[in-house]
């Protein structure tokens, strides 16, 4: 049995050591610190260059002057930031696109492209603690896409017959705008989209303004009161019918449906209030200002939990009711686990996808779908093979990050935990997780520690082999379950 790379005890020891180090280290005043380059990434082992060091992004203002499907168009990103060290230069994650003028506090800055990094050297170094503003002008390329050999397949700009949607997971936001593109780094965002009058523009958050921008063109402005991670950002332009509503708990609902699909998807689209009530009963109050479905004319193989506005390919709502509801509930659960409670590192993805798959399956069983125990027994049977091919739930590598282990294999961990501690204790653990870490990033060690606190017992010996072991542990209460040899 392998031990986790960051067991809870080690984290506590590390925190203690860092505290003692800080206590004896000499204090340097910000103005005395020698400016140095910010790190090109935040150190995620799976995506080493995702995010950037040396500053905190406080607010993005994104301006897109959309033209036509497949056509390049002018764009501007303005970033309000705070230096967390004395900076001689800093990076933004930025892939492709044609770079234009870049300024820092209104002064032209030197730039260079280094792969997916935009390296910016301001005219004057930035002292620690200073607020500064970066403005990046560029020409956006809405044909940019990348591909993965896992569940994601294609990500980036996704064309529709009359516009676009975007699929930025896992690290595709950098194809849309310069940013700190890591799931743990979230920023308040204002989005201005200008498009032809006969089109609708959509983004995360609340529509705060809509006005003529030029003859035949309209500017839509959205503001996200809650910060958004790059992988959860949405920018959609096209012909949509907007359907507003309100759930029983007061949550504002906003769906965007292509006009020719409105009647065809109505029987499933209208189920969102029921889904909200079901998930809220288990995970607590809905964590954002509003929620809705963005149904797109695309051939995407998978949906995406873009914050407050889940992206669903049309096929998800044109099939049978059981599968439609599974997909809808899966993306809705993500608003709590993955969106509100963000993952700290990509290796924590099991917490996001495992939760969504687990609750999707529980809901489905209660509403005419497959038997949960039978599904979990089948996942248990294959678990050693998945561990061999894709790593244990909390030990992925970058190429197999979105393999089945992070979905069904990780849902099995929650099923095992529920069986071990009992339904009532498990329910308290889950509610505590979404409450304590609401609006924050948290990782595997946080979950193990919290579960132990709620259960009043150390659950690390139980969860460690499930999350990190080379072999699948026995399933509590099911001594007859067997694992196929890997």
UniProtKB/TrEMBL annotation:
EC numbers on record? 3.4.11.2
Which region is the signal sequence? 1-30
What keywords are annotated for this sequence in UniProt?
Aminopeptidase, Hydrolase, Metal-binding, Metalloprotease, Protease, Signal, Zinc
Any idea which GO molecular function terms this record carries? alanyl aminopeptidase activity; metalloaminopeptidase activity; peptide binding; zinc ion binding
The Peptidase M1 membrane alanine aminopeptidase domain extends over 276-466
Enumerate the spans annotated as Aminopeptidase N-like N-terminal domain. Answer: 58-225
Asked whether the keyword Hydrolase is assigned, the reply is: yes
Q: Which cofactor does it need?
A: Zn(2+)
Instruction: State the reactions this protein catalyses.
Output: Release of an N-terminal amino acid, Xaa-|-Yaa- from a peptide, amide or arylamide. Xaa is preferably Ala, but may be most amino acids including Pro (slow action). When a terminal hydrophobic residue is followed by a prolyl residue, the two may be released as an intact Xaa-Pro dipeptide
Top-level taxonomic group: Bacteria
Q: Name one Pfam family in it.
A: Peptidase_M1
Q: What class of enzyme is it?
A: hydrolase
* Any one GO BP annotation for this protein: peptide catabolic process
InterPro entries under this entry?
Aminopeptidase_N-like_N, Aminopeptidase_N-like_N_sf, Peptidase_M1, Peptidase_M1_aminopeptidases, Peptidase_M1_dom, Peptidase_M4/M1_CTD_sf
GO CC terms on record? Answer: cytoplasm; extracellular space; membrane
Look up keyword Plastid and say if it applies. no
Q: Which SUPFAM superfamilies does its entry note?
A: Leukotriene A4 hydrolase N-terminal domain (SSF63737), Metalloproteases ('zincins'), catalytic domain (SSF55486)
Family statement drawn from the similarity comment of this UniProt entry: Belongs to the peptidase M1 family.
The protein depicted here goes by the name: Aminopeptidase N
């Amino acid at each position: 049995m392998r031990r986790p790379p960051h067991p809870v005890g080690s984290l506590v020891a590390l925190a203690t050591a860092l505290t003692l180090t800080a206590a004896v280290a000499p204090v340097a005043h910000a103005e005395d610190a020698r400016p140095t380059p910010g790190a090109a990434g935040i150190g995620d082992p799976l995506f080493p260059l995702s995010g950037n060091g040396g500053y905190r992004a406080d607010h993005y203002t994104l301006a897109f002057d959309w033209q036509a499907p497949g056509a390049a168009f002018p764009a501007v990103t303005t970033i309000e930031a705070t230096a967390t060290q004395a900076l001689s230069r800093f990076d933004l994650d930025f892939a492709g696109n044609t770079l234009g003028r870049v300024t820092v506090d209104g002064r032209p800055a030197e730039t260079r492209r280094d792969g997916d990094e935009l390296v910016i050297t301001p005219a004057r170094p930035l002292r620690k603690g200073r607020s500064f503003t970066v403005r990046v002008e560029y020409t956006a390329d809405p044909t940019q896409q990348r591909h993965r050999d896992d569940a994601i397949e294609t990500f980036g700009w996704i064309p529709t017959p009359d516009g676009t949607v975007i699929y930025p997971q896992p690290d595709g936001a950098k194809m849309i705008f310069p940013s700190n593109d890591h799931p743990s780094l979230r920023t308040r965002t204002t989005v201005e989209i200008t498009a032809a009058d006969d089109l609708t523009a959509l983004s995360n958050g609340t529509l705060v303004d809509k006005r003529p921008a030029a003859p035949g063109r309209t500017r839509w402005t959205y503001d996200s009161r809650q910060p958004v991670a790059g992988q959860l950002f949405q920018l959609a332009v096209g012909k949509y019918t907007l359907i507003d509503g309100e759930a029983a708990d007061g949550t504002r609902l906003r769906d965007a449906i292509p006009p020719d699909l409105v009647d065809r998807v109505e029987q499933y689209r209208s189920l969102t209030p029921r889904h909200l009530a079901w998930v809220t009963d288990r995970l607590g109050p809905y964590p954002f200002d509003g929620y809705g479905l963005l149904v797109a004319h695309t051939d995407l193989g998978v949906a995406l939990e873009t914050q407050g506005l889940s992206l669903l390919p049309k096929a998800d709502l044109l099939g049978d009711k059981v599968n439609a509801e599974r997909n809808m509930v899966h993306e809705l659960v993500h608003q709590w686990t993955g969106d509100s409670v963000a993952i700290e590192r990509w290796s924590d993805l099991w917490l996001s996808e495992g939760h969504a798959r687990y609750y999707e399956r529980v809901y489905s069983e209660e509403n005419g779908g497959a038997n949960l125990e039978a599904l979990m027994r089948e996942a248990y049977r294959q678990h050693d093979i998945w561990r061999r091919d894709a790593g244990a739930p909390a030990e992925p590598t970058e190429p197999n990050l979105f393999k089945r282990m992070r979905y069904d294999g990780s849902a099995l961990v929650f099923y095992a935990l529920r069986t071990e501690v009992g339904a009532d204790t498990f329910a308290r653990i889950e509610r505590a997780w979404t409450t304590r870490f609401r609006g924050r990033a948290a990782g595997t060690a946080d979950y193990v520690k919290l579960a132990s606190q709620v259960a009043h017992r150390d659950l690390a010996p139980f969860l460690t082999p499930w999350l990190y072991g080379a072999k699948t542990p026995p399933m509590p209460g099911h001594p007859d379950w067997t694992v196929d040899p890997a």
